[in-house]
Structures are given as structure tokens and as C-alpha cells.
Amino acid sequence: MKAMTLHHMCSLKDTQEPLRYEEVDTPIPQAHAILVKVSVCGVCHTELDEIEGRTPPPHFPMIPGHQVVGQVASCGDEATRFQVGDRVGIAWIHSACGTCHYCLSDQENLCPDFRATGRDANGGYAEYMTVPEAFAYPIPHVFSDAEAAPLLCAGAIGYRSLRLSGLQNGQALGLTGFGASAHLVLKMVSHNYPDSEVFVFARSEKERMFARELGAVWSGDTAERTPQLLHTIIDTTPAWKPVVEALKNLVPGGRLIINAIRKEDADKNLLLRLDYPAHLWLEKEIKSVANVARRDVREFLDLAAEIPIKPEYETFALEDANTALIELKHRKIRGAKVLQME
Ligand SMILES: [Zn+2]
Ligand SMILES: [Zn+2]
């Protein structure tokens, strides 16, 4: 089969072609796994973190990609959940042990044996991939393959962030950074928390206007003060400044959720501006979001079908994955980027 493979980590300042387009062996599903013929795979910022070594794959070559929609092509000897031809989705969680304390307490995303699709196991930048059948999801009929793919990462993790924020209907929510995940959170809030007002912090005026069009009651620059204090703020930026700035806008006992797999170090020195009385005193909390559990993916897909949420997307051929990644690196974004096979 054809695949885009990562052979070593590299800086995207030095190369425009981190992935290699090549012929590799089609994988064979193990007993409880399925082989999926990939139709579409979303392109995610996390691929940049893998390529540049912020969350490195444990071995090479690795096939990235963790927002996959395709059809079941064959089933392992003991896999009975799906039929050949069924449409399935695959998300960031590729497997977890199933027996540890975390797996048994609805926190499989924290399992020490958590394996990520497209980092610890080969992902969807390829014509085929395998996944344990228990870690694949039926896709609601309202979505095309390309519409569903971006929901599997940005949507599921946005859903988890909102869950961890503890937001109650009527409480004020802040979003710092306004990319794919934050757009989806705004749509979920309007539906599930109709009396909650949303405040958006973004660097560009264009993003701030877009946020107001989508229903935010206020939008401003990262460092601004909101007209009222907020119960919870979700940060989806790769930087530190928004973290420090957000804390001063929280109510006593408020919670900041950091939804980022890794932060970049460029402005890390701004953490020295952290002022205990202004930023943390009065029981303010900071909590990160790690990975997703299957429950987040399942519940979010159902919610997205009900609302419905249909992401804007642009398509690239598999062999043009490098172009999509470089555009993402330089924030040339017109909707979610998805690789479409054949
Ligand atoms: Zn992702
Ligand atoms: Zn476990």
C-alpha cells in the first residue's frame, strides 16, 4: 500500500518534506483487530509535535494520522463487532490496557499503556491501517467521511475539555485561542449550556470578529480583561502568555483548562510574570487535558450529529500531506485539512 512515513524527527525550519511517500506492506489485523481501508484522514497540529519531537514516536518509521474514517476491509479471527464494508472512525486513543486502575475507573486516557494512533501505532496517512475493534466507532449517517474526520480529534478533545471544565448552565466560559477545537466548543456550549455566555480571546481581529459571528458575547486580545470574571476558561493555544493572562479573569475557585498536548517554549519566560495573589490565590485551579477516552469520542459524535456540527474542510491528496502540514505550521488555515485517499 501507499503511505506517508516519518523516518526521523526534524525541524520544519530545515525541511518542507518531513514525510516520505512510499510503498509499505499492508498491515494484517491481529485476532481482536480490524483492517480499515482509509477513506479520509484529518491533519492535526499534533503531527507537527510528533515530527518536531515534542511528543516523539517511540520507533521509526511511523505512519502518522489519528482522525481516520474508512471501511472495514477485513476482521481478525476473533473480531466480531463489525462486518466487512462497515464505516468506522478511529481517533487518538488506539488502545489501553483495560485492566489498570485508570482503565477501570473511566480514565483510560491516563493508562500507563495508553497507545496513540499515528504515534505509538501506525495511523491513517496510508491506504490501510489496523486498530483493535473495541477502539473503532460507527460514524453517524449525517456526516460524510470528510466531515466526520476532523470531529474525531478537535471535537472529541474539545468535548473532554468542556466536561473537565465543570461548566454549569448559566456560568460564563472563556476560550483563549480560537482554532478548530474552540469553534466546536462554542457550538457545543450554545446547544448544551444555552444560558452560558462565551468570551473569546484571540490574537487577530479576524478571529475575534469570527467568534462574535458564531455567538460569543465578547471577544478581545489575549491580554485584555473581560467585563466580568469567568467561571472557567479553556486554553487551546501552544503558548504560555494566554495561560498567565487568563488566570486574572477567573472568579475565585475558577478553573483554567489547558487543552494542549505540548506547549512550545518560545515565550516560556512569561511565566515569571505569574503573580500569586492576582493569578492563583482564592483557590483557582489549572488542569490539563490528556488524550481522549472512548467515551469522549462516542458522546461527541452523537452530540455533533444531533446539533448538527459539520466542519468546513479542504482536501489534499495523500502524497500532498507535507504541503498540508507546512500550511498548518504557518497557520494557513481555511477549515480543517483532510487527506483524501485515491
Ligand atoms: Zn489531533
Ligand atoms: Zn490501563
UniProtKB/TrEMBL annotation:
Q: Which domain of life is it from?
A: Bacteria
List the coiled-coil residues.
Answer: none
Q: Which UniProt keywords apply?
A: Metal-binding, Oxidoreductase, Zinc
- A single Pfam family it belongs to is ADH_N
Required co-factor?
Answer: Zn(2+)
* Location of the Enoyl reductase (ER) domain: 14-339
Q: Name one GO molecular function term.
A: alcohol dehydrogenase (NAD+) activity
Check the record and name the InterPro entries matching this protein: ADH-like_N, ADH_Zn_typ-2, ER, GroES-like_sf, NAD(P)-bd_dom_sf
EC top class, as a word: oxidoreductase
Tell me which EC number(s) this protein carries.
1.1.1.1
- Would the keyword Oxidoreductase be found if you checked this record's keyword annotation? yes
Taken from the UniProt entry, a GO cellular component term is: cytoplasm
Family that this chain belongs to: Belongs to the zinc-containing alcohol dehydrogenase family.
Q: Which PANTHER family match?
A: ALCOHOL DEHYDROGENASE 1-RELATED, VACUOLAR PROTEIN SORTING-ASSOCIATED PROTEIN 11
Q: Can you say what this protein is called?
A: alcohol dehydrogenase
- Per the UniProt entry, what species is this protein from, by scientific name? candidate division KSB3 bacterium
